[in-house]
Amino acid sequence: MKITLVKKVLADGQDCAKCKDVQRLLERGGHLQRIDRVMVADERNPASAGWMVAQHYGVDTAPFFVVRHDDGSEQVYTVFHEFLHQVLEAQ
Fold it and tell me: CA 67 → CA 12, 34, 62, 70, distances in Å?
């Protein structure tokens, strides 16, 4: 399983508040090392990788997670606590 976190960076260069909260929760729970890749949807660059991933999956909120399972299937989580319970705590 591979986990990608897509977070948003605001026009002032700061992570969005919700992204900061999720990062803190991942760190506090000891889960940050389970994230394989972090992509940034940068408000200053509409062509940034994070925006492309969001567009591909039809997601308009941040942060969100893309989980690629070993069988190649993918699942997108836009709600952190759902991701936490169904993915991180299920392992």
Answer: 29, 11, 15, 10
* Number of domains forming the structure of the chain: 1
- Exposure string for 72-91, b = 16+ CB within 10 A, e = fewer: eeeebbeebeebbeebbeee
The domain of 53 spans: 2-86
CATH number of the domain that 32 lies in? 3.40.30
Pairing mode, strands 64-68 and 2-9:
antiparallel
Q: What is the pTM of this model?
A: 0.94
E strand or H helix that includes residue 1: none
Query: What average pLDDT score do residues 18-23 get?
Result: 97
